[in-house]
Amino acid sequence: MLRLRQIFNFFNFHKSFWLLHLKSMGIISKVIVRSRTKGFWFLSLFLITLTAFGQQSNDYKGLPFIANYEPATYEAGIQNWDIIQDDVGRIYIANNLGLLEFDGKFWKRYGLNNTKVRSAFWGKDGRIYVGSQADFGFLSSDETGTLKYTSLADSLPSSIRDFDETWKIFGQNNVVYFCTFKRIYVYDGETVEPINSDKRLDISFQIDNQIYTQITGDGLFLVTLQGFKPIPNGDFFKEIRISNILPYDHDKWLITTFSNGAFLYDGDITPFPLSSEFWKNEYLINYSIRLRNGGIAIGTQNAGLFVIDKDGNLISHIDKGAGLRDFTINFIYEDSQMGLWLAMNNGVARVDLVSPFSVIDDRMGLAGSGYAALKKDDLYYLGTNNGLFIWQNGKAKLVSGTEGQVYSIQNIRGKVVLGHNNGTFLIEGESALPLSSEQGAWILKAIPDHPEYFIQGTYSGLSLFKWQNGELVYVHKIRGFDESSRVMEFDGNILWVAHGYKGVFRVKFNPDFSEVVESDLYNSADGFPNDVLINVHRVANQMIFTANGGFYRYDSEKNYFFPWDEFNDLFGYGTVIADLESDELGNIYFIEQSQLGIIKTENNRQKLHTKAFNKVNRLWNDDLANITVLDNQNILIGGKQGFIHYDPQKDLPREDRPRVLFREILNHGRALNLLFSGHQAGVGFPSILSGGEFSYAQNSFVFEFSSPHFESGDQVQFQVMLENYDANWSPWSLDSRKEYTGLREGKYNFQVRSKTIFGEVSEPISFVFTVKPPIYRSFAAYLFYAITVGVGLYLGFNWLDKRHKAQTKRLENEKNKAIQRKNDEIENLTIRSEEEIMQLKNAKLQAEITFKNQELTSSAMHLIQKNKLLHDIKISLKNLTEEEKNRQLTAQLNRLIKSIDKDLDGGEEWSRFSENFDQVHGNFITRLKEKYPELTPQEIRFSAYLRMNLNTKEIANLLGISVRGVEIGRYRVRKKLGLSRQENLSDFLLRF
Fold this sequence. Notes:
InterPro entries: Ig-like_fold, Quinoprotein_ADH-like_sf, Sig_transdc_resp-reg_C-effctor, WD40/YVTN_repeat-like_dom_sf, WH-like_DNA-bd_sf. It comes from Algoriphagus boritolerans DSM 17298 = JCM 18970. By secondary structure, the protein is of the alpha+beta class. It has 14 helices and 64 strands. Among the domains are: 2-60, no CATH class; 661-777, Immunoglobulins (Immunoglobulin-like, Sandwich), CATH 2.60.40; 778-905; 912-992, Winged helix-like DNA-binding domain superfamily/Winged helix DNA-binding domain (Arc Repressor Mutant, subunit A, Orthogonal Bundle), CATH 1.10.10.
């Protein structure tokens, strides 16, 4: 009957809820479209089946990720009452000590006149409306983006100022309602008008764009501007305090109460069933909310958080045991990323309900790190380093006798076999029965051609097991192979055994499997990049070898290993795979040293999906990494603490792109100035902020930024770039602060963007500003510099021109002087040269003269001797003629005497002599003739002989006269030369 009633309830759902529910369960949109017509009834039945399956399988899903924020973290009061989110993703929390702001990394508190803040509302105008103790108003940003509080209650007349606390704030049609226990105040943007009540009001609610309030003793009423209007059967709640009203179904509400459970209301009121399997009457409901995936979240006073489905079935119960710091939940808010924020009596928490990941750990009774898992029928076996646990109904219980390290849990022909540090055990119920005491039992593998036999890998080699009489029986240890055999796979009857530090062995057995007959080791000598971290996997009936460098395949013909390009191209060469596991759909789950993920086949091509797994990248067990596919919807990853559960149905595409915003922008130099404090007037956060111009003395800037992506926690990364300063974007970093000091003048554009743990990158935001040059580099300064330089250049050039001219003139004078000196030197040199030449010529002439004189002297002496000889011959001939009587002989002698006289006369010889004499003595004879033409030839000859410094006797011989004739010749020459008696004739002739 209960199931039938649930079916009818499902049929009454609004279509939009159908679509939302289907989407949340991972149903493809095409199926939804096809089901809107005549297949709708089939889809309904299908949905019921899926829902029932979801409820059935919910028992072994883990706890959601919970982020707790304690009062010491946000530095405010312990109690929190209301939560809102602005349009850029920041969370605001009404706290006992003010309004808290959280942007994913930083907390900030607004004191609001030191009053307790009870309520908050994000207005369409971008204001944050707040209600507090005896006050209400709004926060809006000033010109620097700093939120400032404006009280609206302070403007009220004292007659309507007498309220205590403002517990709720709602907005409708640009009108804001402040709900107190005394009256409701309506603010239209300019004035505040009260809606009065004769009786005390209780908490107010908003549903279907209408506001309802509870009047103590009267029931539930509709709020209008004219007053309070009762609703049908609203008096049912005159003594029952309502905690919230939710949309449930078409024209139907779900009303939760503080201490009387929940009711469905559509004009009539019926109890809403909360199963006694999880709900107790003493639980008090402080608040409730309808989730976007169709579920209902209930926050209690004394039992934490319950998440139920539309029919009241429990989906999840989160309390202190699940990770909350407090049982009391005052308010629940679902943020834009579908995370649940809990305002608690002692702190704040965020519960990640929609994540495909959850955690199974000591909070559920599971102690230790996860190493192995198995699903068998309705039981789930989890192995850790502390033993084997049976997980059922959300609780884990240790199997007695399995304390210690678990290595494997296997279903062998319906039997649960445990591989343990202490040996091999058969698990029956909650007991462990020993099968073998061989230490370090890693794993069992069935022999393909002999299915009754199983090979087990241990610390010290291989063991043989046999299936007989419906039992698994230990046979013996196999001889001939003593290597540790944790990872192994059969390829036909060949067993590949991977050793983490040596390589991979190819093992062959004898027919009865008592001995290893062949064991070949393959490592770096056989195609692998090295000898370590080599593993073997069988995936989709393929043997895959992985190593510290990628994927490899074995070529039996060449007996060699070659890189497997299909996988290496997918991952990139150099990857190190720790584990591979496939599901029935052909998806391959993997653990790699730096990432986890799935290999999916899409459009006949393999593709990696890793982004969603970034959430748990730091949580998996890196000792013996393992991933176990329980079924297509439940995958367990061995964690450092317990196991990480992955539900592929919840791994939906993310539609909300992260945003980055400026928290604070400071400008400093001579003074410290706040330029921006995170908030922009109006709605939205602009992608570009303009900072204007700054003096050169204020040329340093500090930027603080954040990205409210709460699922990423403190792992949001940022990238910055200052255009006109940085060449490229900075590397991704967790640092949310950037400072630039001493910027030069120019126009700058600071940009920042964020990246979530899922690799989603936000659009960048910018702060554009200009640094003006210092006064000495301003336009006026440059103009002054230009004029000064121009005048300076003019004066300088003028001075340089004069200087140049003076220098030119001086240089020219110096050059002329130098030229003159050179000319003088040349002239002196020429003169010296000419003198030397003249001296040389004179010396030569003197030598020639000397030589001529010598020749003349020699010629004169020769002539003297000749004339003397001729004269002697003449005398002798004369004497002979006088003695000789022979006429004929006398005539001949006379002829001979005449010939001698003719020869003594020497006319021809004198001509030659005079020519030579003139050459030697500077034309003496010619000049003497010209000056003294009255001299006779004989006297000229006489004068020439005197110049030759010949004595009287020699001259007489030359002239053929007597010595007395020479003396007479002297007298005549002196007379013709006009010499006085005192003058010497020879000296005169020598000087002439």
